[in-house]
Known about the structure:
Elements: H1 4-17, H2 19-42, E1 48-49, H3 50-57, H4 61-73, E2 78-83, E3 86-90
Antiparallel strand pairs: 1-3, 2-3
Helix pairs in contact: 2-3, 2-4, 3-4
Amino acid sequence: MENTKEYKEKLKALRKERAEFIENARSHIKTSNNMFKKIKAQIKDKAMTIPEIANAVGEPSSKVLVYVAGLKKFGLAVEKEKDGDYFKYQLPITD
């Protein structure tokens, strides 16, 4: 069995080796969380289509669609009435 000092040194070396990967993952999570926050702020009080949300947050519709699909999948957004060719999305109303 390894002693505690050797174990800690191996962990330190592993963290150093994977530092770039860890930082990239943190950056991606931060970016995703910010995007979810922006989208949720837009659809909090009124239903909006994907193009309307994209315009409001300043991102391409294709990117917004992916995030809204994620929100919908986990019950954090609901599909509302259709507006032309597009459905509208809104945060679920809670009592």
